[in-house]
Amino acid sequence: MRKNCALVVNGLILIVLATAFGVFSQSVSSDDAKRLQRFEKRVDDLRQRLRIPGMSVGIVKDQKLVWAKGFGYADVENKIPATPDTLFHLASITKTFASLLIMQLVEQGTLDLNEPVSHYSSDFKDDSVKIKHLITHTSAGTPGESFQYSGKRYGYLTAVIEKKTGKKFTEMVVKTFFEPLGMTESVPYHKIVDESDKWMGSLGKERLDRYKENLTRFAQPYTYYGSGETVHTTYPYPEYNGVSAGILSTVVDLAKYDAAIDRHVLIKKQTQEKAWTPFIANSGKQLPYGLGWFVMDQHGHKLVWHTGDWGSGFSALLLKIPEKNVSLILLANSEALIEHQYSVGEVMVDDAVRNVFVCSFLDLWGLAYDCDRTSNTAMTTFIEQRRISGRTAIRVDPKILESYAGKYQFEKLKNGIFTVTRAGDKLDFAGPGTKTEMFADSATTFFSKIMPWRLIFTKAEGQPAQLSIVVGDQTYYSTRLE
Hints:
- The chain is an alpha+beta fold.
- It has 13 helices and 21 strands.
- It folds into 2 domains: 379 residues, Beta-lactamase; 83 residues, Lipocalin (Beta Barrel), CATH 2.40.128.
- A hairpin with a 3-residue loop joins strand 7 and strand 8.
- Helix 1 packs antiparallel against helix 11.
């Protein structure tokens, strides 16, 4: 695509085979141009309101990437712009890749969705939970009774795929999607280069070298804090690599993936339609999820999508309007792209139309209806919630800060040795894969702007300070080593 199919101007891709404005009609018109310009301006306005440092956005029409643009910065500190080739975490959009692999096995006749998960994991003590319950998020409680999104439970599908194929999920992603579809800018796992010895045999040096090069275009992660402060997060991303999350990609590569889905080169049309049909609960109630995809009706028009959200630093969305043969791809280096849509309802059940970017996209196709009001309420609520939850740091006597410096061991935390050092008016808190600034909101309590941890120091007369960590309703106590 980069060689001869597209013109790249200031981060905007204009596809030669179908011009940027051809997405709206067969011929380029001034009305088409104005609509795209309004959408582009709206996206950037919303991005700035949500303090998202960098985004890449693409529109796929009739299996072609007809428009893509980068907004803001992939790396704020070094002023590196976001482009359609910027690499982002997909997080839970990885689940759609897993769904396709599962449905391929179904088509081949090697897997039955009614097969018990107990055949693949000893964590399931009876045969009540079926594969269909995992892939539809209906495995919790009474299987098939209700939708309860769970990345952890969906993750059991990793074992299903690997047992049936005899290959690791990561290898299946590379050889089923990346290689055949030309997704050369994608990376199957953010630590794959660090673990190259593990993957050299199955993936080879050439691929690993390419992933290393691709990772140089990996966006830096940021989070929205307090009254709109953009904080560069150092929160460690899970080393998890499986069906629930892990893939990194770009707008350009995801457009290839999206086109392959619609061309039915991965699974048959009827199989895909089954995956895009809402699952029916035991009670007969229609649920908001199909086989690895969210599905909803927007005034008689089917919307199919999946979000991805690491909770801090990265979020993503792939939304399809099958009737229009059009898709929207959104990738961001902040959680705000997705998390604002959950501010007015239950997480992972809310309609995609509560997302302000999705609503603006639907407006291009005359499908917005009343979502503008709903999505703007969601965005406003998110901003206010962040403002309320933000804490204001105070200054603490440097001598007190120095007295907290030391090494602490937490028995109930894996590899739980953490070091506290004074950094000016703050404390640096560092442990395995973790380093964050801690700000004082009292002389004994400290908070992080990027992690849900609170540090509490206690000090008996004549004794060195002791440290505990509070995470939600859990408190972890330490022994001071030095």
